[in-house]
Amino acid sequence: IKKLWSGNFTTFKGKYYRLKKAKLYTTPKKPIKIYVAAGGPKVAELAGRHADGILIGPGGLPKVEKLFNAFEEGARKAGRKPELLERVAELLVSYDEDYEKALKSCRFWCGSMLPIFFKYDIYDPRVIEEHGKLVGDEALAEKWIIATTADEHIEAIEKYVKAGFNHVYFVSSSPDEMKFIKFYGEKVLPYFKQYSK
Fold it and tell me: What angle (nearest 5°) sits at the alpha carbon of residue 78, between those of residues 161 and 10?
């Protein structure tokens, strides 16, 4: 990708992709950062070697240390400074003053919480939705930040900041997304200005 972005003719023979004298005639005006999502140490190490940052998805907090260690090791092997690379957390959130409404709004995603669908060739949305009904409220609340107050959201997000993430992005499934945006903009995000450089 980076070779293509240079604007030069590119020939590449990799395990999955091959290019023969390919050229992008419209190239980026400034460098585009590449992030690699990692759920295990092998991909985290690869991210450290090649990417501008690592992205760790929902529920990744328990394995952050292991992933960051592999990420930093990969960076050092490639002669890069790990402290200059970015660490991004993806957080699943839902907000409403009524906890049950916030919880119910996340139910749509329950099927995506079952790892079996990623392991086997199951793609029928009806099957995924049906199995998603088996996911309990406790399991849903473990994966999502479902809360009714700014303090609850701040406390949950701050765990990621303190674990070493320097960027966080939110996937909201709040019942009222405009209310969520206003709530985060006024009550949650201002708290984190203290962490910005």
Answer: 110
